[in-house]
């Protein structure tokens, strides 16, 4: 089954590589990955859909949390959450079919974001299934380009406790022998 | 005062308590090597950077301190990869410093440019590319903190040549690490302590699985107190050897693929396993489908990602073992587990008749006898550093280690060529200790140029080559599982004694037990390093053995009496 993991990370060069390299090394398959700045400056939010069972998802999360550049990891598929995908679709739309194309778009609540002589670009957001269905519905008219993002996700309701970005300092047991 | 990046590097290492580094110079690290002359740090010039990494590793394992390696860009850095992977697998704190081409040349395929942070990403706990002198101090301080905190591991710091050359102020206080605390741990909870106590109270056949984490946590006393209070027997992993004394009456011995039959049998019969700082490696569990099916499992590990990774557990505690046991100990009830200990005693007695130590040598030299004699003559007090193969398993079975950090061996990666360089590092860390290399004829040939490093550094290390003319461990698998088709396992060796002589090292070659004993005595009496070429039985086998993927108690046992034929049976009828 697909699990959604959200990692808050340092916004530094190479961090994306560290995250994906780790997931690959642990033999998990990434379905989709969406990266952008998070609410706090200097941090990024990576939303990852990973194919795995529940224990597997927990394991990936535990491994990710060990990366120095990862501040926290949430498994959103374990709680009620909002999941959205975004897609841009360029559809052939000569005068003869333009009306039908726009009707299909409307049915999916897609927006027209560009109009050219013989094509239009639609923008659609929603579940992965909805976007696939829209693409399928437009295919007969000539789907010229399709660009889709991976999942974006956020938990519903109030956050249970504000997870501090930096974990509280714990008392370290002194090392057996240390430098 | 303005310092160059190179000076800041050494200044920081000195302040971090580093007294020795293992390395090899080259163009991109030249500024650092130039500045090194002005700092009180011993530099051990190796013969191959892999040797430097294993030396730092051996140094860290013997002392518990962070081992430090230094190498140049490109080939110097890539030669470290095996050593880093080895340290990562076995949780060894290490910092590797590599030179990198000038920052303006990065990405241009400049001379000796390799994407070192890219190449070492999966074999380090963390790594850094430093392109500015100002970043050297904070990065180094963080690197040391990361290397040794939580679950220890190797960290690499790649420093461009211009960063080594540029001048800046050293702001030591301002370089204090904070970020490393993120990879620290949530403390365990009271509920977990209570849950553990409940499981312990309810157990009739408990067993401690003693791992490397005991050593890393410094929890030996706590584990022994736990065992004594509850009369719980202990089994060790390969890397757990020495963490609890071999002679301890409750220490059963090593578990796993080449563990004692009674230990594996006890694991299969136990009703509670207490995994103390061990990670259920596949060499330890055999097939997971039939592993310890009657046992509840408590797993205490500082790395939360280890809990439930290989074996589902009833109680997983993420935390430092010593801290957890300190909480647990005052609450423990006394048990005597008389019946359970009696059962194990019976299993043990039945297996002892097969022990090769009870068998006559009839003029032949068995590796197991050599190890036994080495143990006897050194009174079990040496640091033994092994290579990988059959000799490693015989060492684990027949050298009885009483002290933590006295067996140094490559467990998780099984890196041939580890022993000689790691022993150099161990000797430098513990000059007060007698240090022995136990290596195979194959593995020794992988890193033998480090003999010259040994001589150049004036170190007294004794070397035992268990020379069987084969890549023995692989030959053993071919014997059992590939119809004795010995494909590429017979291996020729040079005359090791003459070879040693060329390095200025004394040596002896022996092929009988009497001569072996005399040679060990001669080596110990010799002031300088000494090499012994033990010409042992060529087609000898490490028993018992759990075939890969088999159940833990489906062991191939030593035949009674020893014959070359193989007797496969299950441990159930000992
Ligand atoms: C040829 C060959 C044969 C082998 N055969 C065997 C065999 O028969 N039996 C066997 O046992 N091994 C065998 N091994 C070794 C095996 O591959 C593993 O390396 C070994 O079992 C690992 O032991 P470990 O889990 O105790 O140590 P490690 O792998 O070092 O794991 C230590 C664990 O302790 C944890 N830890 C660290 N610090 C702390 C702390 N402060 N508090 C709590 N936990 C902590 C770590 O997170 C880690 O999970 C063999 C290896 C080779 C090369
Ligand atoms: C670098 C490396 N290459 C290959 C192996 C696979 N391997 C494991 S044991 C072994 C044989 C070791 O032979 P030797 O050093 O003679 O020791 P012996 O088993 O004979 O005691 C080999 C080839 C390894 N562990 N490490
Ligand atoms: Mg050999």
Task: Give keywords.
heterodimer, A: 179 residues, alpha+beta, Alpha-Beta Plaits, 2 domains, 5-stranded antiparallel sheet, 4-stranded antiparallel sheet, disordered C terminus, B: 574 residues, alpha/beta, Rossmann fold, 3 domains, 6-stranded parallel sheet, 23 helices, globular, binds flavin-adenine dinucleotide, binds thiamine diphosphate, binds magnesium ion
What does this entry show, briefly?
Chain A is an alpha+beta fold and 179 residues long. Chain A has four helices and nine strands. In chain A, strands 5, 6, 7, 8 and 9 form a five-stranded antiparallel β-sheet that branches. In chain A, strands 2-3-1-4 form a four-stranded antiparallel β-sheet, with helices on one face.
**Count of individual beta strands of chain A:** 9
Rg calculated over all Cα atoms of chain A: 21 Å
**Which spans of chain A of ≥5 residues are poorly predicted at pLDDT below 50?**
164-179
CATH architecture of the largest domain in chain B: 3-Layer(aba) Sandwich
* Estimated helix fraction of chain B: 25-40%
The biggest sheet of chain A amounts to: 5 strands, antiparallel
Tertiary shape of chain A:
elongated
Question: How would you sum up the major sheet of chain B?
Answer: 6 strands, parallel
Can you identify the CATH class of the largest domain in chain B?
Alpha Beta
* Backbone structural class of chain B: alpha/beta
Strand order of the largest sheet of chain B: 3-2-4-5-7-6
Low-confidence regions of chain B: 563-574
Number of spatially distinct domains of chain A: 2
Description:
The complex is a heterodimer of chains A (179) and B (574). The C terminus of chain A is likely disordered. In chain A, β2 and β3 form a beta hairpin. Chain A is elongated, with a radius of gyration of 21 Å. The termini of chain A are far apart. Chain A folds into 2 domains: 78 residues, 2-Layer Sandwich (Alpha-Beta Plaits); 71 residues, 2-Layer Sandwich (Alpha-Beta Plaits). By secondary structure, chain A is an alpha+beta fold. Chain A is built from 4 helices and 9 strands, in the order βαββαββαββαββ. In chain A, α3 runs antiparallel to α4. In chain A, the strands form 2 sheets. In chain A, strands 5, 6, 7, 8 and 9 form a 5-stranded antiparallel beta sheet that branches. The relative contact order of chain A is 0.18. Chain B has 574 residues and is of the alpha/beta class. Chain B has 3 domains: 182 residues, Thiamin diphosphate (ThDP)-binding fold, Pyr/PP domains (Rossmann fold, 3-Layer(aba) Sandwich); 161 residues, Rossmann fold; 189 residues, Rossmann fold, CATH 3.40.50. Chain B is 36% helix and 17% strand. A 6-stranded parallel beta sheet of chain B has the order 3-2-4-5-7-6, with helices on both faces. In chain B, α1 runs parallel beside α7. Chain B starts with a strand and ends in a 6-residue tail after the last strand. The complex binds flavin-adenine dinucleotide (FAD), thiamine diphosphate (TPP) and magnesium ion. The site of thiamine diphosphate (TPP) has 20 residues of chain B, from α17, α19 and α21. The site of thiamine diphosphate has 20 residues of chain B, from α17, α19 and α21.
